[in-house]
Amino acid sequence: MSNGRLTDWARSLGLSTPIVCAPMGGVAGGRLAAAVSRAGGLGMIGMGSAGSVTALERELGALGDGIGAGGAPFGIGLVAWGIARDPELFERALAAGPALVSVSFGEWGDAHADASWVERVHASGAIAVTQSATVDEAMRAAAAGVDAIVARGREGGGHGDHQHPRDALLAEIIAAVDAPVLAAGAISTSSDVARVLDAGAAGAWVGTAFAACDEALTPPPARDALLRGSAADTLVTRVYDVALERPWPERFPERLLRTPFIDQWHGREDELAGDAEARSAFAAAAAAGDYSIVPVDAGEGVGHLTRVRSASEVIASLR
Ligand SMILES: Cc1cc2nc3c(=O)[nH]c(=O)nc-3n(C[C@H](O)[C@H](O)[C@H](O)COP(=O)(O)O)c2cc1C
């Protein structure tokens, strides 16, 4: 058990527990972020593939009193190709006064061509964080001046480069970089948190465990799917992205809870891309919120979710 212990990194951010609620598009809005930050962790607003200035403004408005600007800190998580597409979203995020800004799912070229965001985040007074799936990526991020790196294991929910198991990746990244390293991927219990802290992590970056919280944006039927799901029901696939023509780079498929639609098309993504009828039927199901067809993103720890809890209950169960 971690017994509520604190790391230097968490203390430097003013947290009372080294737990970050991962940015999750469509799940981690202002209400969840505020609830996590009020409970002593770091809450984050996630802007995923559907991120926009309008969506960010709405979620910033939902933070409520006492968060940011002298109150409890919060963070904002963005995807690299999303801010390349919509630079105003990045500007608005910096102007909101987050303590931490994460930009993930970009490329770290040899010349760090896309790393200018790191300096911009620093100039705003926030710390810059990114998720890495390999040691090489983590070293490039550290060389670009990123303040903390999230070692994201293949067990994790949502999009990512699902190559290495969390604990092995964490140990290798800690050995390779001087920056604080957080751990991500199926962190679901206080023993998971204790294990990654014992291994030297500066904190735990936790997604799925918060996804069924009552403060999350998760629609009720998606919540039910999370409560029913287990690790064996998760799959890493591009079917959802192809079906909705979402512009996620191919090297970042997502871990999600399978549905019959996903099973039907997994491995046949090219065929699905050419099947306008199947895609439009899926788009209609997505618009109607039919989660018997539409999958829900989840990591391999999803089986630990058995009831809807508040964010503070989840924090209490992790610390
Ligand atoms: C529903 C969901 C949505 C996600 N959306 C984002 C996102 O918008 N931006 C991001 O950087 N990471 C996103 N992630 C990945 C998380 O940052 C993190 O890597 C992951 O949740 C960790 O694994 P876990 O879910 O098993 O705890 C998402 C994860 C989930 C489950």
From TrEMBL:
Signal peptide boundaries: none
Q: Is Mitochondrion a UniProt keyword of this protein?
A: no
Q: Which keywords has UniProt assigned to this entry?
A: Flavoprotein, FMN, Monooxygenase, Oxidoreductase
Matching InterPro entries: Aldolase_TIM, NMO
What are the recorded GO MF terms, alphabetically? monooxygenase activity
Query: Which protein is depicted?
Result: Nitronate monooxygenase
Q: Does the keyword Oxidoreductase apply?
A: yes
Q: Which residues form a coiled coil?
A: none
Q: Which Pfam families match?
A: NMO
